[in-house]
């Protein structure tokens, strides 16, 4: 047990002591008293352990009812899930990693590779990747040699931020320095390659992992299956799921959700439903994303009854709707022009404490424009600006499209508005404006926009060409 290991640490400890905790659930109350500083709890990154103690304040007192009590200085915890009373849980990470590092150096202590890695891991998990890179550089400057644990969080975070170039640079650095790759690094690289649009390289990376006699874990298979399903190769994704099970790697809800999503996007709803049934048989509970994906898929297929049944089932198992599920209902109402019902649904969502996001507001704005309720669309745009994260290019394109269809357009004013919002027009923006001018018969302005489109580094797509060809043919007939 964890407490037994803690008790074995000498009183008055003056050296950093790492307590490696493997995967599993540890039901005990853990206390690090003030006589045992410099302790690090380091959980398995591939199978994060849980600490759980069902202590009630009424029995133990508010403080002593805690699962983890830390009185010692310089305590750090990484990759541990602590389950707290009332079912609340949090992932322990280094929230103030930078300030802790500063304090360590001020006191004349010399951080080693584990300390630096813990700090970088915490910074990466909290989205502070630039700070993590800074710590990495400092680590190198003081002569501490990074290992594969040091590189893994940086590579993973850089790929997630869309910075594939830097991620590959760190990979190259590992190769040059002869730093061995473990399953975590391979998984991060494979996931990143899928995100960078290099699926063949991603699959090759998985084969290299196997050739290195490394054992892929659930996260590795999740990245592989998720990448394949997003590319539309769901059958191969299911084959990988079978391989997982044959190798006694238990699939989690993320793996099943990827396959459900893949089949649903291909319109193979029966197959998607069968996957959900299979996961239930394997004692993996579907989450809101799985239900939401199927609800949305059946709505789009015109099978509203099945969607409503799935929604009722979702509620009956204790799952609450999220923004994605709400948007599925909004889009269903929008398709049939029932925007008043959609608006009532949004109000009910707010009354239950859910906050509409940009996607919800954009769907509502689009729906109101389509039924000719321009003022209601403007109200949604205003509310989105005030209560959510504001416009993105998709929302702005909906606004432009709605106004252009109503015959209210002036390209320069839209450019000004976009610049004020820090947005850059995309192909859909130009296609909307070019189409509006073509319908008006103003081919001169349409061609001007075509040149402006090229100035933004955008090439005319098939939609652009069709719009212009149709207009030119109409002009020729006239």
Description:
With 478 residues, this protein is α/β, with parallel strands linked by helices. It is 62% helix and 7% strand. It has 24 helices and 9 strands. The chain has helices spanning 2-8, 57-60, 97-106, 113-125, 129-141, 148-160, 164-177, 183-195, 199-211, 218-230, 234-246, 253-265, 269-281, 288-300, 304-316, 323-335, 339-351, 358-370, 374-387, 393-405, 411-420, 427-440, 443-455, 462-477, and strands spanning 17-21, 25-27, 30-32, 39-43, 50-52, 68-70, 76-78, 80-83, 89-92. The strands form 3 sheets. Strands 2-5-8-9 form a 4-stranded mixed beta sheet, with no helix packed on it. The chain has a 3-stranded parallel beta sheet with strand order 1-4-7, with helices on both faces. Strands 3-6 form a two-stranded parallel ribbon. Helix 12 runs parallel beside helix 14. The radius of gyration is 27 Å and the shape is globular. 36% of the residues are buried.
**Tally of separate helices:** 24
Report, as a whole number of angstroms, the end-to-end distance.
86 Å
- What topology, given as strand order, has the largest sheet? 2-5-8-9
Q: Averaging pLDDT over every residue, what do you get? A: 82
Shape descriptor reads: globular
Largest sheet: 4 strands, mixed
Number of strands: 9
Quick structural gist:
With 478 residues, the chain is α/β, with parallel strands linked by helices. The chain has helices at residues 2-8, 57-60, 97-106, 113-125, 129-141, 148-160, 164-177, 183-195, 199-211, 218-230, 234-246, 253-265, 269-281, 288-300, 304-316, 323-335, 339-351, 358-370, 374-387, 393-405, 411-420, 427-440, 443-455, 462-477; strands spanning 17-21, 25-27, 30-32, 39-43, 50-52, 68-70, 76-78, 80-83, 89-92.
């Amino acid at each position: 047990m964890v407490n037994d290991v803690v008790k074995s640490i000498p009183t008055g400890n003056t050296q950093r002591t790492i307590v490696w905790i493997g995967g599993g659930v540890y039901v005990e109350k853990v206390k690090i008293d003030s006589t045992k500083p410099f302790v690090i709890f380091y959980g398995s990154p591939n199978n994060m352990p849980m600490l759980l103690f069902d202590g009630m304040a009424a029995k133990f007192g508010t403080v002593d009812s805690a699962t983890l009590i830390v009185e010692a200085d310089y305590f750090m915890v990484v990759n541990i899930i602590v389950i707290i009373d009332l079912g609340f849980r949090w992932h322990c990470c280094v929230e103030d990693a930078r300030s802790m590092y500063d304090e360590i150096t001020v006191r004349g202590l010399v951080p080693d590779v584990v300390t630096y890695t813990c700090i970088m891991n915490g910074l990466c998990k909290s989205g502070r990747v630039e700070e993590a890179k800074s710590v990495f550089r400092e680590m190198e400057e003081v002569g501490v040699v990074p290992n594969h644990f040091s590189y893994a969080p940086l590579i993973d975070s850089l790929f997630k931020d869309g910075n594939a170039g830097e991620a590959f640079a760190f990979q190259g650095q590992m190769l040059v320095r002869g730093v061995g790759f473990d399953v975590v690094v391979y998984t991060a690289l494979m996931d990143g390659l899928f995100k960078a649009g290099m699926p063949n390289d991603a699959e090759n990376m998985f084969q290299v992992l196997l050739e290195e006699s490394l054992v892929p874990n659930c996260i590795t298979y999740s990245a592989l299956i998720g990448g394949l399903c997003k590319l539309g190769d769901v059958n191969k994704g299911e084959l990988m799921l079978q391989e997982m099970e044959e190798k006694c790697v238990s699939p989690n809800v993320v793996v099943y959700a990827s396959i459900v999503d893949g089949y649903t996007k291909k319109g193979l709803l029966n197959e998607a439903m069968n996957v959900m049934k299979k996961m239930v048989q394997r004692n993996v509970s579907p989450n809101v994303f799985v239900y939401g994906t199927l609800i949305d898929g059946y709505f789009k297929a015109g099978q509203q009854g099945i969607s409503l049944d799935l929604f009722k089932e979702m509620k009956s198992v204790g799952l609450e709707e999220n923004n994605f599920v709400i948007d599925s209902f909004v889009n269903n109402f929008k398709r049939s022009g029932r925007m008043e019902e959609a608006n009532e649904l949004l109000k009910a969502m707010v009354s239950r404490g859910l906050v509409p996001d940009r996607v919800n507001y954009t769907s509502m704005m689009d729906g109101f424009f389509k039924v000719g309720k321009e003022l209601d669309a403007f109200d949604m745009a205003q509310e989105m600006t005030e209560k959510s994260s504001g416009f993105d290019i998709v929302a702005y394109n909906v606004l432009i499209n709605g106004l252009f269809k109503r015959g209210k357009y002036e390209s320069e004013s839209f450019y000004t508005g976009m610049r004020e919002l820090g947005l850059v027009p995309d192909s859909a923006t130009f296609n909307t404006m070019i189409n509006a001018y073509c319908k008006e018969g103003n081919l001169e302005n349409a061609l001007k926009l075509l040149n402006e489109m090229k100035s933004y580094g955008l090439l005319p797509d098939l939609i652009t060409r069709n719009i212009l060809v149709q207009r030119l043919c109409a002009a020729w007939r006239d």
